[in-house]
Amino acid sequence: MADHLSREGRSRNMAAIRSKNTKPELALRAALRAAGATGYRLHRKDLAGRPDLAFIRWKVAVFVDGVFWHGHPDHWNPEKASSEYWRAKIAHNIARDRVADAALTSAGWTVVRVWDTEIKKDVNSCAARVLDALHASGWRG
Prior knowledge:
single chain, Restrct_endonuc-II-like, four-stranded mixed sheet, Endonuclease, Chain A, DNA repair, Very short patch repair endonuclease, DNA_mismatch_endonuc_vsr
């Protein structure tokens, strides 16, 4: 199926999509602050994959992944994709995520990936996953 938007129209739509400080990310940060987990840094460019949250002292990197952009199996079916562009785009995003995970893990980091829909459904259980990773890394909050 061909894209119904012009190149400029598609660019305008894509530019309007947030990549930082999304509602799910803000909700997770609020839940973590409420639980006493502060001291994280946001979107660190010096870390593989630019984690949404990076607890530097405890080496815990947290990513809030959108189900479409990061290819959640329940929300992304490459066989039903509207074009080769989207199949390639999402496949590239998934591969990039795996490379970032491997780079961080090999550098001694714990990686926590949370789907945006999980946060919308139960932010506290998502925060608990991050807190578990922090505790395992020596955090005493």
